[in-house]
């Protein structure tokens, strides 16, 4: 028996600023759907999510949500007015019986619910919005770039949670690995048209390329037919004027069809050009140590960076990746150790904070007031790798239209700001590129182009990223910063690093310290477990402790004798939650006992 859809859009039309965003749009989201929503920056992905959430009113058409179904939308820039802390925001409007969920989610997403909203970063605010959504547990989740500004540990936690949920969701993300792991269907927005394929994102690019290939073939056939009919009109119309008016009208229809075709947006005309070649040795760091407020960033760290290296720095947020790069560049002094630079270094930096962009001035001004580009003031040209180009023409190469050139930077989307920063970066020659979170907000096509450019770039690249797929495609060396001053160098990208780390842990000699008789066999016996089982055995005590704490909170809530009589719905929700956590606790304890027995042989 077919199930009723969670949400249905029928014949939707929406116009912004005189331009249609969607026309005759119809789509259905079914129970259990795991949908990737993809498209170029500016194609309307976020707008479509807001239409689904009922936050944007359409011009015509219908939006129908299944009876009793709740739809939750993760805001990219949530308003926290009236909330003192991130936790206050995350639990706002929530039944007290459900508020315990926020603490559980906050632990996985790695943000502090007690943090003041006035000092919280944009990434922390977004994680609080995601925690609020997940704690509310709606029947359909609409997730707009949930992994932006999230470190890999938190991304993998979210990936596990979403892979286990039965809740349907529609997901916008630039993170290929995340999309590949989670999605089973794809919605593709292209020039106002929304297509659906019942396969996950891993099949998207082949589908897109085949669609465009078929479209190009149809366009070629149409052009050929127009030429044939136009030749007939010129050569034969005088002899058959009355009899062939219908054929002339058909020719006019063909020309109207061609005129009505919407041209595909091309890729940004990005280019990287190295200046003079740097010396073979770019940076040599010996014995670097650095700490802030008693927290070790690195201890006794050595690194040699040679010309042409592509080095990725990975690790949790706040571990000190950007600080280490600044030490390597000479911008931050180490507490101990030395850094020596090679010759002829020309360094260009893409910073994740977009600090080199002035949000209050226009795109034009942001390109023409940077002395490093050889121009200042209100010039109408910008020096692009030694050649003058008109500002408007150069911005068009990065897919900005003429109307945006005089707009303030703060009016741009995240992806547009990233493209503007790339335009500044690529206007100059360089032989060392420092890319601090370059993938945030960029669409897949722009990421592909950036990856190809980095592959051909003859200089050196220092990269900070939480995008596992991008690291795999770009990096030749990965430096894993694991906290407490530990930074380890691995050959290859993210997958290579994880495989080598797992192999190292499997083959590392087991150090058995003096223990009681009951402790020693336990540690020695764990060598019989697989890596995954060993890791699971190590994390299960924390899982059990968290479940016990949640059960205790729910028990305190249900101890109120007035809850059952005054708030029966809340009492039932608390009861259901208690049963759910108790079941998970039983399963976790049973799994722990099974692994312990296996470890003991």
Structure summary:
This protein is of the alpha/beta class and 601 residues long. Helices cover 42% and strands 21% of the residues. It is built from 19 helices and 20 strands.
Give structural notes.
The chain has 4 domains: 32-53 and 68-206, Rossmann fold (3-Layer(aba) Sandwich); 218-260, no CATH class; 281-502, 3-Layer(aba) Sandwich (Rossmann fold), CATH 3.40.50.300; 520-599, Valyl-tRNA synthetase, C-terminal domain (Helix Hairpins, Orthogonal Bundle). 42% of the residues lie in helices and 21% in strands. It has helices at residues 45-53, 86-91, 100-109, 122-136, 152-164, 176-182, 204-236, 245-260, 321-329, 363-368, 391-397, 414-426, 444-456, 468-474, 494-507, 520-525, 531-558, 561-566, 568-599; strands at 7-16, 19-29, 34-38, 60-65, 71-74, 140-144, 168-172, 185-190, 193-197, 281-292, 295-306, 310-314, 336-341, 347-350, 381-384, 387-390, 432-436, 460-464, 477-483, 486-491. The chain has 601 residues and is of the alpha/beta class. It is globular, with a radius of gyration of 29 Å. The strands form 5 sheets. Strands 5-6-7-3-8-9 form a 6-stranded mixed beta sheet, with helices on both faces. Strands 14-17-18-12-19-20 form a 6-stranded mixed beta sheet, sandwiched between helices. The relative contact order is 0.09. Helix 7 packs antiparallel against helix 8 and helix 17 (531-558) runs antiparallel to helix 19. It contains 19 helices and 20 strands.
């Amino acid at each position: 028996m077919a199930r009723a859809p969670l949400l249905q859009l029928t014949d939707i039309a929406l116009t912004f600023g005189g331009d249609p965003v969607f026309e005759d749009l119809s789509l259905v989201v079914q129970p259990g759907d795991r949908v990737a929503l993809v498209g170029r920056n500016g194609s309307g992905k976020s707008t479509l999510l807001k239409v689904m959430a009922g936050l944007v009113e359409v011009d015509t058409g219908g939006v129908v949500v299944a009876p009793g179904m709740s739809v939750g939308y993760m805001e990219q820039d949530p308003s926290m007015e009236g909330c003192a802390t991130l936790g206050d925001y995350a639990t706002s409007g929530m039944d007290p019986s459900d508020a315990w969920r926020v603490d559980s989610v906050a632990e996985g997403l790695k943000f502090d619910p007690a943090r003041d909203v006035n000092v919280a970063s944009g990434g922390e605010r977004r994680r609080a919005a995601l925690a609020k959504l997940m704690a509310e547990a709606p029947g359909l989740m609409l997730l707009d770039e949930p992994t932006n500004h999230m470190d890999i540990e938190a991304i993998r936690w979210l990936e596990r949670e979403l892979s286990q949920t039965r809740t349907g969701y529609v997901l916008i993300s630039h993170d290929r690995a995340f999309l590949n792991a989670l999605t089973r269907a794809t919605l593709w927005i292209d020039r106002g048209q929304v297509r659906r394929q019942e396969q996950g994102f891993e099949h998207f690019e082949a589908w897109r390329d085949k669609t465009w290939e078929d479209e190009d073939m149809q366009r070629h056939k149409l052009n050929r037919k127009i030429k044939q009919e136009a030749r007939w009109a010129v050569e034969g119309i005088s002899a058959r004027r009355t009899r062939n008016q219908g054929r002339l009208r058909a020719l006019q229809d063909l020309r109207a069809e061609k005129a009505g075709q919407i041209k595909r947006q091309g890729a940004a005309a990005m280019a990287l050009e190295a200046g003079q070649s740097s010396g073979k040795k770019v940076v040599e760091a010996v014995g670097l140590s650095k700490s802030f407020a008693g927290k070790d960033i690195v201890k006794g760290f050595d690194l040699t960076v040679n010309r042409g290296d592509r080095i990725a720095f990975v690790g949790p947020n706040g571990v000190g990746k950007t600080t280490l790069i600044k030490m390597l560049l000479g911008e931050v002094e180490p507490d101990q150790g030395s850094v020596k630079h090679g010759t002829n270094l020309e360094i260009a930096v893409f910073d994740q904070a977009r600090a080199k962009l002035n949000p209050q001035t226009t795109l034009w001004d942001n390109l023409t007031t940077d002395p490093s580009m050889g121009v200042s003031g209100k010039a109408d040209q910008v020096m692009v790798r030694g050649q003058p180009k008109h500002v408007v023409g150069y911005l068009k190469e990065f897919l900005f239209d003429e109307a945006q050139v005089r707009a303030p930077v703060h009016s741009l989307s995240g992806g547009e700001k990233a493209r503007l920063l790339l335009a500044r970066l690529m206007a100059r020659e360089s032989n060392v590129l420092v890319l601090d979170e370059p993938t945030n907000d960029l669409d897949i096509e722009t990421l592909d182009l950036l990856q190809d450019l980095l592959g051909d770039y003859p200089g050196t690249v220092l990269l900070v990223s939480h995008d596992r797929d991008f690291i795999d495609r770009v990096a030749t060396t990965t430096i894993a910063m694991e906290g407490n001053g530990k930074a380890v160098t691995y050959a290859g990208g993210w997958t290579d690093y994880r495989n080598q780390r797992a192999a190292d842990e499997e083959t590392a000699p087991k150090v058995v310290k003096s223990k009681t008789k009951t402790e020693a066999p336990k540690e020695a016996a764990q060598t019989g477990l697989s890596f995954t089982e060993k890791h699971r055995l190590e994390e299960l005590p924390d899982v059990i402790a968290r479940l016990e704490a949640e059960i205790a909170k729910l028990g305190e809530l249900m101890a109120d004798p007035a809850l059952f009589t005054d708030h029966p719905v809340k009492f039932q929700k608390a009861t259901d939650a208690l049963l759910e956590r108790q079941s998970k606790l039983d399963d976790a304890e049973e799994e722990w006992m099974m692994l312990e027995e296996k470890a003991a042989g």
